[in-house]
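C-alpha cells for NAD-dependent epimerase/dehydratase domain-containing protein. Go.
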Amino acid sequence: MGQNVLITGAAGYIGGSVLAEFVSRTSGSIPTAKINAAVRSEDQVQSLSGLGVNVIQLDLSEEADVLETILRNDIDIVLLASDAKALTGSQSSVTTLFSEEGGWIYGEVRDTDSIFEKEKELGESHPVRQTNIVVVEEASRQGVASYNLAIPTVSDGRGSGECRKLSVSIPQYVRTSIKHKTVYRFDKDGVSSSATLVGGKSQCTNTNQSPPAAHISDLTALYALLVEKIIQQEPFPSGKNGYYFAMAHRAPWWDVMDGIAKSLHARGLVDEDRVQVWQSDKMAAEYLGFPELYVRAMGTSTGELVPVNANRLGWEPKWDKERFLESIDDEVQAVLELDTVKATVFDALKTPSA
C-alpha cells in the first residue's frame, strides 16, 4: 500500500526541486506514494496545481493547523524542506553548524559520530542546533523515526520547482556585487589550522577545508533515496544516529568569488574583475542582508566534515568541485534570468539589532 508523503516548503528552492524530482519518477517506490505539497500562499497553490499532487496552503507556525493537516491527510512521511524546522521523515539542517565558525569545538566530525550528544553539550544557542535537538527528542517521544539532512550553505544549480529556482548564498553575492559594482570576499578562504606532533614538538599546519557544497540535482537525489528506503521499510540509521551530511564536494570561496568577478566584469556589471576584501563582518552583513552573528560562518565556514551515512545508502553525487567551479558563469546567468524572489531563509535568524 502506498504511503502519504508531505513536502513542506514545496514552493521553495529545495522543497520545490524535491517535489519536481518526486513527480518525475516513473519507477521505484515513490510513484506508489501520494504526494502532498505544503505552501504558504494561494498564488503558490495555483502554481503547483497542475502537478497532480495534493497542494495544501499551510502556515507551519500554527501547530493546530499542522496537526490537523497531518491527521486529515493520513500523512506517513514528512519532509521538512522549508525554513521552519520531523512523524517519520527528514528535516533539513545546515553544515555550517559543524564548523568552528558555527560554534563546533570538536574538530573533525563524521555523520556517524555521536553528533546528537555533542549538540546537546553545546546547548541550544544556535536556532538550527536547537531544532536538531527538539526534532530528535520529540520524534523519540512520539515513537517515530527522524532523519537529519545537513544541507550545505553552498547549494548551487537552477532549481527544478515551479516557483523559486535560485538558492540563497551565491545569488545574494551576485546581487550584492551588481548593486555595489564590486565583488567582495572575506579575508579567509576556508583554511583551518591543525596541530601535529613532530619530533616531540607541536607543529601547526594549514589544511584546505573549504565550505561543503552540493548541486541541487544531487540534493534531490539524496532526498529521493531516503524516501525510497523509508517506503520500502529498509532499516538504516535514524534518530540520534540519523545525521546525513549532504556534502558532495567543497567550494573554495575565493575561487568562487574570482569566478563571479570575472563573469560580472565581462558583462559590464562590476567595475573590476578583481575581488576586494570586506572591511568588517558588519559591512558584509549589511551589504548581503545576512545576520551579522552568522555572516562569517556562512561566508568562510570550514568544517572538517566527513560524509559517511549518505554514501553508505548508495548516494552517488554527479557533481564535483571542478564541475562546480566551471559552472560559476552559469550561476551568474541564472540570477540575471530568474531573479524574482529576494526573500532569504536567513531572515528568521536575524536579531532585532541586525
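The chain is about 40% helix and 20% strand.
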